[in-house]
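Troubleshooting: if your tokenizer reports a length mismatch, compare against these two reference records.
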Amino acid sequence: MARELLMEMEGGEVRAAIMENDSLVDLIVERESGGSIVGNIYLGRVERVITGIGAAFINIGLDKSGFLPLSERRGGEQIGEPVVEGGTVFVQAKRDAFAEKGPQLARELSIPGRYLVYAPTGGRLTVSRQIEEEGERDRLLGIIGDIAQGEEGFVLRTVSDGVDQDTLAAEAEYLRQAWQSVLQNRDGAEAPALLYSELSSLQKTIRDHAQEDVVSIRFDDSAAFSEAKSYCEQFYPSLTEKLSMEQDKSPLFDQYKVEEAIEIALSRNAPLPSGGGLVIESMEALTAIDVNSGRYTEGSNPDENARKTNLEAAVEISRQVRLRNLGGLIVVDFIHMDDATGWAQVLESLRQGFSRDRVSCRVVGRTEGGLVELIRRRRSSPLAETLLDRCPECGGDGHVWRTESLVFEVLRSLRREAGRGSAGKLVLNASPEILEAVEAAGSNGSAFSRVGRQVVTHAMPDFGPEEYEIFIDGEGNGGH
């Protein structure tokens, strides 16, 4: 299976698309403002301890307090000293804030590398379940057993398959040094304080997603390409030859039809190859997915039609759940089948699809009512929450683009228009909200620096918050 990484940067936004056989399967969107905090380590201040729910609320210096379960255990023993209101606690963010909920925290700390995840205490040595060959698992456990010191624990990640001892030992030492820096930062720090921050969005994406089966990592921004090259040359030289800078002036995602896939991922409906489709409804408590057969009638009998449509749906569900970053309880209403073998094939297809998911997803099975249950861990906000807001005009039943999302789309639209070859200045008429956000996006340089030609802006007070138009020197060529 050919996998590619497409990396696009615009203003303060990083978008990474993971393609499998030219199909988008994962999308990572992070911004300088409001990026993910998962993996960050803090010295927090305990605000409240609520014994009734077995949790504490921790001030880590953000708008929302973190939620710390007090039931964390390792080897049957509770982790850390008892938590006391007003006291301090050493915590790591395990999940971003979601809807009205603050970030979820844990006291079991770890620092990830490309091949290893380092835990300073606990002493557990484990191998990723995705490395299935017993001989290789034994080899890796033998190597890490020689590398580990004292109470250190390590998880060997999937990409460590086949990696030699020297490479693993070098990364283990790097992670140890990172942990020592955390301890040094803690000395003398006043809570709340950030002690360890994850890598930049670009570096983290390369570390976590550029596995050995990735054949290329493509960029359309020279600064991003330079950062990636320096990072890989220092830490992962084998990836350097996979980096490439695209010369085409059009946005990288346009070339690979990624924008079309994102548009589908933000809608209720996702089509299936045979003409059927999925209807996906997300609520705070769960996500419901309904499988429709559409006009598919090619099978020899209704059950055969249902089986083929359900198998198509199983493949697309695993893709859409990953792409939309859905979490929690997911229930799927497949087309009814009487064939037990067909159901076994559908469930196995789901398991195979989610086996490539970096976020843990368990296929629970069928309920008595015939629905299929999935449980996927929540680590960060769903794609729709990252890009969209609830519509203020329709009581929250619809969605509109977040202003910060729309800004980056405006910048991409300007680059598209500039690349069409017509001479002249670009004129951007936009709502005051959009222009204010564009100005903020260019706080460390011109927001229009990559457009390649002069851009004249006009604030239009009568435009709606989402409304803008782009044209060349007075010629009406675009709008939103």
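Reference record two:
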Amino acid sequence: MEDAEGSSGASRRGFLKLAGMGTLAAGSAIAAPSAGAAPASPRLAGPLAQPAPVPKAKGPRCVIVGGGWSGLTLAKYLREAEPKFDVVLIEPSSLFFSCPLSNLWLGEVIDLDLLTHSYVDAARAGGYVWLQAMLADVDREKRRAWTTAGYVDYDYLFLAPGIDYHYPSLGVEDPQQQAMIATHWPAGFRPGSEHLSIKRKLEDFEEGIFLLNVPPGNYRCYSGPYERACVIAGWLKREGIAGKVVLLDPHERPAIKADGFLHAFETFHKDHLEYVPGSNITGVDPERRKVITEFDEYDFADACIYPRVRASRLIEQFGLAKKNSPQFEADIDPLKYNVRGDDRVYVTGDARPMPFSKSANTAYTEAQYVARLVAARERGEDEPWVSPVTSCHSMVSIDPPMSISIESRYRHNGKGEEWDFAGVKLVEEPSEGLGKANVEWGRGLYLDLFG
């Protein structure tokens, strides 16, 4: 594979490639299977009440909602596991943008082209249909999904809608203030527009504090905020900017690869990064550009403010969220992934409740297992549970590019829904070799899913 090319910032061509990116949205409530249930969407009329413009199914139809790492992997591997499956991927965005490796683009270690890919290419390579639409409703009794392009009937439905942000976790209840924070200081862990905004922020940054934070709970990419702190601190040093990163963390040590990150903070970024552990954010004053913690207040010139992660609102809207879940994640069989009581509907990726890392390689390997599982069920067979694999490289220096890494699996301990780590491989000594492996990992996954 070719080496990653450096970037002098987002090119005009690169920015234009991202035009038209949408977001996954849900409309009305889901209809659970029940005797004599009414149609889920009697108000849908006209074109929405007609079949969507997809070919007639040639076999059991698998409908996937969400074209992130989990949904794309399912779309390809369902057909590999059972060639007679007919697969439709529903995703409103016109272009795939990868959160993984995006920090490297912010630091100009890679070019934007490495992160952006075509759903047309993915569908052609995987032999499935991509329907550019948003999900509007689902009737699980009739096995019908309504979209903004019409309805699609299914034999199996897979919901892989990803995450939303939960701003009340920051002590911010006012929707106007939530919108202000999201607009002016986006977290940068939902793909596309947020990343473009952060890139522009860095290019315009002149001096002062660039504030980042680590959210509580199981958030998207455990190492992501720490890696981003290193990348931005490296950017400030490279550009000779009189500023520093302040990273607020509710944990007493980094939540993952702690020794490696602490070593990097001290060795590479001592003059441009202040790490503040044990800092729980209790409020944000957007008008005064101030973040309040239990013990201190922090003024900032610019920021990426990261609330607690929650499952996409689609899960809650459809009545599939676990009771008392602080992150509104789906109530599914933790080993089989189907919605409880319904082996025709599955939830995968970052909306699932298991405490696996919300990261690309986890979603990628998890979806391969679910694809084999559903193919086996279609044949009347069983598929033994296989742990997803969390493989995570974190760039801690951009000059030169150096990374640390961790790989782990998971083990169900047989006690309800409790899990342990298994087979952890941790490398906390940064190296340029791991920096290259970081990029090549992404290239390998892109090649597999997009051809």
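Descriptive notes for reference record two:
- The first helix runs from residue 12 to 17.
- DSSP finds eleven helices and 22 strands in the chain.
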